[in-house]
Amino acid sequence: MMTKKVVILLLILFAIAVVVMLKDSKEDSDSQKEVPIEVSSDAESFVSLLFDLAEKGQTINSPFIVGETTIQKVHELWGAPDRKSKNASAIYEEFLSNDATVGHQSEVVFDIRSSSPEIQQIRLEDIKSIKGEADKVRSYQDDQVDQTIFIYDVTTDFQLKWIMPKPTEEEPNPEVHHISVFTEFEKDFSLSDLSLEEKVGQMIFAGIKGTDITNETKKIISTHQVGGIILFKDNLKNANQSVSLLNAIKQENTNNKVPLFLGVDEEGGRISRLPELTKLPTNEELGKRNDISLSYNIGKLLGKELSAFGFNLDFAPVLDINSNPDNPIIGDRSFGKDAELVSELGLQMMKGIQSEQVISVIKHFPGHGDTAVDSHKELPIIQKSLEELQALELIPFKHAVEQGADVVMVGHILLPKIDSTYPASISERIITDVLREQLGYEGIIITDDMTMKAILNNLEIGESAVSAVKAGNDIVLVAHNYANVKKTVDAILKAIEDGEITEQRIDESVKRILSIKKKYNLSNKQIDGVNIEELNQSINQTLGR
Predict the structure, then answer these.
(1) Are 193 and 507 within 8 A, CB to CB?
(2) Please, what is the average pLDDT of the chain?
(3) Region for residue 537 given its phi and psi (left: phi exceeds 0; alpha: psi -120 to 50; beta: otherwise)
């Protein structure tokens, strides 16, 4: 029989053994976490092959090239598809014996998906171990699937997407379901493909409410199919939210035939909407420095900022001459009092913005610098003749037209000596006679915001929109209130139905709009995020800080 001392000794030894076992178990577990998952040489070679093919726009078991091959060529080699589905913008055809699905638009293949058995043996960690983290990670969920999509930008033209079930605690390393070799398809934006309602929608630039996409915003985009969306400071709270909102807007527009203008007032100085960025100098400060190279570089920065957030249009620069010291609306937004100075610096800023593939909107034709009231509150009146405007206010706009201005914004200013009835923004004499015929301008003309009191104090929104189109505007800017957007669309359609506006007149404007959208390669392509630190570094370097 064991003594009490022996029993205690055995218990102590047992406790020590348990501690040692637990420690060894933890070390084994930790070592397992630290050791990377080994990838077989076969898997490594196969994944590398798929990436190599994707760089050429191809995938395995397929001779086709995305962006080049026609669907007729696919049918010649593979025969008729087993299944076909269609959405608003593309057709997808399944070829079961080839383990492939082919997406095409306007007869050209832009997406080839492969679900071959070899691909379905690849796992998430295999891809990450061989090629590293994806450039983008997206999710897709419907009633049947809950998927994760790893996207690698293999070239500037082609993407390789890996689609698999969403990783879970039970299965953190899922098998790939299929891959996709994809290229962004440039839509044709053909005028003949658009209905009358779609053409009228292209002529509306609308504002929206909120920092997230709302049901009203979805109606503006999907029901009324507007041509552009303008965002303000209230829509843009921080960088990540701003990018997410723009991505959501683009996503909502994917079923429409034409991509959106996405615009913002980003002039520098006090008129700056983009969050978290170092402020740029006012145009007045740039005027005092009188450095055309600096003005160009500031324009380039503005374009780079907008593009980084996902915008494609800047309502800048201001080409108004600050000739009236009592002006409550322009002030330091102007480069100065001298017409040639404003012309030189304004043109350089315009060209700088355009250099970053961002559309520049020059404003506020025929010149807002000699007004004594704010058009947001009431209608300004300028008692100047056309000859007096030609001697001062029109000079910067004339130069800009000659140097390739894409869009001109017309201000809400009454010029009784030229048109005693209508403000410039809805005056045929100002828009058609002066801007189009005398200055020879062929680009897009857009009104200033038609919800300003300069207009609404005198005219109903629908009536003013119809007048704007009849006067020669291509786009009507309706920056506030969904009801105003709807009334504008309805009023223009009613005017066409009644014969007050011809469809030929609508076509003239839409041709200009589609032309600029093609020129700047507008698309619904989303971006992943914005590097604020890098942008601020560029600003500080340009400003010599």
Answers:
(1) no
(2) 90
(3) alpha
Exposure string of 43-70, with b = 16+ CB inside 10 Å and e = fewer, is beebbeebeebbeebbbbebebbbbebe
Structure tokens at 436: 């189009």
Whether the CB-CB separation of 478 and 507 falls below 8 Å is answered with: no
Does 37 have pLDDT greater than 60? no
Which residues, at least 6 apart from 393, have a Cβ–Cβ distance to it below 8 Å? 320, 321, 323, 339, 366, 367, 369, 370, 384
Q: How many CA atoms lie within 13 A of 493 on its CB side?
A: 16
Q: CA-CA distance, 237 to 320, in Å (whole number)?
A: 29
| Residue (of 143, 193, 201, 192) closest to 488 by Cα position | 201
Instruction: Give CA–CA dist 465/488, Å, rounded.
Output: 6
- Rounded Cα–Cα distance for residues 497 and 507 (Å): 15
Give the model confidence (pLDDT) of 121-159 as tens digits: 999 999 999 999 998 888 777 778 889 999 999 998 899
Could you report the per-residue pLDDT of 477-505, keeping only the tens digit for each? Answer: 999 999 999 999 999 999 999 999 999 99
- Amino acid at residue number 57: G
- The four Cα atoms 227, 258, 88, 241 give a dihedral, to 10 degrees, of -70
Q: Is 448 a catalytic residue?
A: yes
Decide: 260 and 250 in contact? Cβ < 8 Å: yes
Q: Residue 143: its pLDDT value, please? A: 75
The continuous run of DSSP H or E covering 228 comes out as strand 228-231
Q: Which of 75, 177, 376, 480 is catalytic?
A: 376
- Does the global pTM surpass 0.90? no
364 is catalytic: no
Residue 303 buriedness (CB in 10 A; 0-12 / 13-18 / 19+): buried
Q: Edge-to-edge strands of the sheet including 444-447? A: 444-447, 407-410, 359-365, 313-314, 261-264, 228-231, 204-207, 476-478
Which of 314, 332, 419, 448 is catalytic? The answer is 448
Interatomic CA distance for residues 317 and 280, integer angstroms? 13
Q: How far apart are CA 24 and CA 334, in angstroms?
A: 74
Give the amino acid at 128: K
Q: How far apart are CA 293 and CA 290, in angstroms?
A: 9
**What confidence tier does 185 reach under pLDDT thresholds 50, 70, 90?**
low
| Chain-centre distance for alpha carbon 193 | 23
Segment 46-72, tens digit of pLDDT: 999 999 999 999 999 999 999 889 998
Q: What are the structure tokens assigned to 358, written together?
A: 């961002």
